[in-house]
């Protein structure tokens, strides 16, 4: 299970809008010299993402929630996104090669196949987006910010 802590932005009628960002611990491990995620996080902007999930328990803004998604569905999604355009590229280019088109046309057919594979992946993803296996699961719910206070007696 891939886990991430998110902050509640708002909760209305059983739907929560969550915001999560890149992990603050990323880059503190010893493998950062060879880590692709670390290198990409240094190049790109520090982005935050929003996610809307269904949760019946009332939440307040600022509350922390741990959400998770199974590795299997994450791997299937990655395969869909990366392999479908690649498969389209190879099939269209092989089709053009089979009919003895010039190499320029083979390359153009390959590009067309890559774009076609991308659109096929988007269509498949739109069907899979409502499947329960691809939905994030609430693992833990933290205390609301108003419930937690620290008193120091000097």
* Strand-residue proportion: 15-25%
Regions with little confidence, pLDDT below 50 for 5+ residues: none
Give helix and strand order, one letter per element, not per position. EEHEEHHE
Order of strands across the main sheet: 3-2-1-4-5
Largest sheet: 5 strands, antiparallel
Q: What is the CA–CA distance across the termini?
A: 44 Å
Shape: elongated
Number of helices: 3
Task: Give the % helix.
Answer: 40-55%
Radius of gyration: 22 Å
Q: What do the pLDDT scores average to?
A: 85
Number of strands: 5
Structural class: alpha+beta
What does this structure look like?
The chain has 154 residues and is of the alpha+beta class. It is 40% helix and 23% strand. The chain has three helices and five strands; from the N terminus they run ββαββααβ. It has a five-stranded antiparallel β-sheet with strand order 3-2-1-4-5. Helix 2 (71-98) packs antiparallel against helix 3 (103-128). The longest helix is centred in the middle third of the chain and has 28 residues, at 71-98.
Q: What distinguishing features does this structure have?
A:
3 helices, elongated, alpha+beta, 154 residues
Structure in a nutshell:
The chain is of the alpha+beta class.
Fold blueprint:
Layout: E1 2-12, E2 15-21, H1 36-43, E3 48-54, E4 64-69, H2 71-98, H3 103-128, E5 137-141
